[in-house]
Amino acid sequence: MKKILMFLALATITGTVFAQKAQEGRIQYKKTDEPAILITYDYPAAVVDNALKAKMADLQLTGQNSRGFLVYKNSVISAITSSKLDYSFKTQPQGSKTTLYLLMEGSGSISGDAAVLASRAKAFLEDLNGNVVKSNTIFQIKKQEAIMVDEEKKLNTLRENYNALDQKVKAQEKIVASQKSILEDLKAKN
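Request: output the structure for the sequence above.
Response:
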């Protein structure tokens, strides 16, 4: 029982130590340095992009690509605020990791304090980690399926080549047997 509790405690501590934390930073947007919320994931950009798009699709939001950013204009993400904002996301690969930037722009009255808004945006990006892990699993499955299809094609090609060679061997064995028979007949006449 103590071992199980120790394992659970270690797993919880390890999970919290390695959990992704969002932070405030800056990014170039429309030729100006803008404040942004950012988080770095230990996954390739394609995985993070797919996770983000899936999350936004779950929220029934559609975005457009604009200058390297995925932009959701005049949208509500209730986990951040009930006000309509323009959300701009950008993924930047950094080796095997990817940094996801979130810019929020709005006009008129935005409900909530800027600090609360930033805190909720950080939480939104941190919560996206589950989607990123799921997206990575799907990515790995598709990658493995592609490898398996290629290997099955190679196996089938090898089997076809084996069957063709086996038929050639059998044909050659018949020729050798026939030649041996002719040679024995010729020796017998001598």
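The beta strands are 23-29, 32-41, 64-66, 69-75, 85-94, 97-105.
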